[in-house]
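pipeline/complex-builder :: batch 7 item 3
reading input block
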Amino acid sequence: MRYLPLSDADRSEMLQVIGASSIDELFGDVPEELRLKGPIEGLPLHASEMAVERHMTALSRKNMVAGDGPFFLGCGAYKHHIPASVDHIIQRGEFLTSYTPYQPEIAQGTLQMMFEFQTQVARLFGCEVANASMYDGSTAMWEAIVMAHRITRRGKTIISSGVHPHYVSVAKTMAKFTEDQLQTSLPELSGETDAERLIAAIDAETSAVVVQYPDILGRITDLAPIAEAAHAAGALLIAVVTEPVALGLIRSPGEMGADIVVGEGQSIGVGLQFGGPYVGLFACREKHVRQMPGRLAGETVDAEGKRGFVLTLSTREQHIRREKATSNICTSSVLCALAFTAHLTLLGEKGLRQLASLNHARACEAADRLEAIPGVELVNHSFFNEFTLKLPVEARPAVHAMVEKGVLGGVSLGRLYPDVEALQNGLVVAVTETATDEDIAALEAALKEVVQ
Amino acid sequence: MTVNPSGWRPSAPANEQGEAQTVTGNRALMLEEPLLFEIGSTEQTGVDFDEFLPGTGRGASVAGGGGPSPERREGGPPPSGLRPATSPSRGGSRLAGLERSRPIGLPGLSEPEAVRHYTRLSRQNYAIDLGLFPLGSCTMKHNPRLNEKVARLPGFADVHPLQPQETVQGALQVINELAFWLLDLTGMYSVAMSPKAGAHGELCGLLCIRAALEARGDKREVVLVPESAHGTNPATAAFAGYRVENIPANTAGRVDLDALKARLGPDVAAVMITNPNTCGLFEPEMKAISDAVHSAGAFVYCDGANFNAIVGKVRPGDLGIDAMHINLHKTFSTPHGGGGPGSGPVVLSQALAPYGPLPFAAKYPDGSYKIVEEETAGEEHPNAFGRMVAFHGQMGMFTRALAYILSHGADGLKQVAEDSVLNANYILRSLEDVLDAPFAKSGPCMHEAIFSDKGFAGGLSTLDLAKALIDEGFHPMTMYFPLVVHGAMLVEPTETESKASLEQFIMAVRSIADRAKAGDQSLKAAPVHAPRRRLDETLAARKPVLTYREPEPAQAAE
């Protein structure tokens, strides 16, 4: 077996040193009757690299590849071009095959990268501090809700109807067990967000208001009045960003008063990968850092006075605090954080602004063309690179019909909200820099046909 | 604030060994690397775009110059050409009037600079690719490169999670095939694939248990956790709303069955057990433990972090376990990546299966696959406790783990367990005469061997041995864990180490152990050959510096 270096001769020499007569003797603590006598039956035996590659390649070919044709899906996962050097960097064995940096003297590479990542995330979100990553955006949002609970000592959270329904679903699942109260509602196919209703709902019991920016329909709302109202009631504002590229063009949530900003970092540096692994972003105010979940890299000096980095404030974490920890998170998503930070470093502020502008321009162009199709209505007054169309027909079958024409034309709201009649004609279309003129034309033509 | 040429200076402090100093602070292949914020510029970029903004002239601003523009330093509007786009057709803003007006402070690097920055950083890391990485309970085995290759096939890497299901049948088949293997290897009834890592899997298992108890109207409040458990176990139980109580270990390093039985009662929801446990020992009475827990109306959660020792040798389902997470990034070789991403599928017993989370992949008699999510859950999986993540789990880890499993096959996986246990016992027996090995007399260990610093002289401890190992070119073992052994050193070599590699490690540990027992104070200085000496963690925690701040303006002026 190519991954196992021991030879049979090694094995018998080693058994001799150990003083055991057989390998099975080493498994003596496993009761005899429970020990399997041979390889588990019914399962295939070992295979060559070539055979495995052939099998996996065959499976991969049964999927429709986003990059193979016109592609317009978003709703929390976005297709952007990733520079080739990003994948090269994350495949450096010293990053790929290292562990959580518990021994800082020989993990400065990961620690410095985390510190740089934290700084980039904090600046992008307009916050003072950020952690070194969470699993993904949805779990980061739930962690933000419980963090707000710890800070405010209040148990009621108001979640905007514009938050990704999977994120809401994760929060609802968790809240069942923690007895946090969540106030949720469904979005409407309207250009207006629910900002005013959120403000009206804030009361003295409210721990936090959670708002997605831009939201699930692509709408952009000014967070400042919501932050103001929350703060006036002693509550916090949690902002959720699922498309961080947008922040190259629009104001950061922190700038508008958000106390905790979480997000999904996939769209910078991490491929679509059918939903994972992705990377959760988590930033907040410095005064709340001790309530924050997750790993943190901090600056310090070594015994010679040289600058170095270590994991710090670990008294918040499970391996020290056990049941009193701020979260149970251990392994997070550091390699994806590396992809994020490397891509953002390649972009720089200038590149990020260009990328964001290009996305917005492409989306504006697509929106204009699609809106011109008879019967198709553009729901949004505002959007970054994603907007919602109201079709004259149900969107789910329309999406399937477009697949027949080789076009992945968007996400139907029916997929995300299967039981909500009023949303069934909604189609969310994301247009990034990867969409060519021909792609947009193909979408226009396909949509025109399927709505007739 | 965009450029900071003066913020970073190489430090070349006095060196007591009298080694020649260099003006750069570099030492041949050991290269110092400043922070991105000290070398980058917000005007630099390593990415070129095909097109540029409508109305600003195609590509015009891309040729723009290097340094910070005067407007930026004064906090004015961004340089021309980087104006936020407005609607090309409607004239007005479609950004709700929320265009960014202030600079963000994100420096960029050109591609050669970026590649060098990260390559230099990478070289300050230890990694499995460089040598033995014996972190106990972490299973740092070789990460096969075939796995990386298949995960990057466009049909897996470039597929959106919300694509219509008819366009992702191959992805669903991967999930299904992997699930099939995991069920066969564990002898369990069903598997929840979506948890993102081990601790997330623990949470999944406990939520299944809670849902099952609530379904029978049973409100139990306590989860029992052995003292030797991973910190995630009590943290998870608390996160799931339970009160945590410890159960003691006996002198043989196993769960004290009598103490456990005495504590079981109508308030206990579950017992969380790690098997093999964190002392590297199999719980021989596991079946009796499970029976006792079940007859008290509670469930058995098993932390599967140490599954590597028993994969293909014994099936958790035969031990009476109700739920167990499997760290694909341990047993099934997906890379640890400096702290994730991981993946923690949870296998479930028949009693818990109805409560597993959404979504899950199912195979239909016609050979098609489907993701059961909110839409059809009502008919197909009505008792699901809910959803744990957006989308469907760590697909990129599933492809890697499946490639690993197919490569080994049923015979190879059994060999994995056997070799990992053989390697650990070889270390145990080769070191027990120089290092205290608290459980060595009770028999063989499983895939990891535990030692302690008992007998070290001159105030030396586990930490000093660990840091000295760094100088010898090894990553240290897990230190001070589990808590049940004072000054613990937990060594897990894994099956991917050769005999020669083990012997070099043994030689190094023997030499350092001898010095530690002789009270050799020079160990306190270790490591001396690493990129950094011991780092001041107290300072880092007392005055946390968690993000880069530009030096005061007076210093930053050119």
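note: The first strand of chain A starts at residue 129 and ends at 130.
queue -> next item
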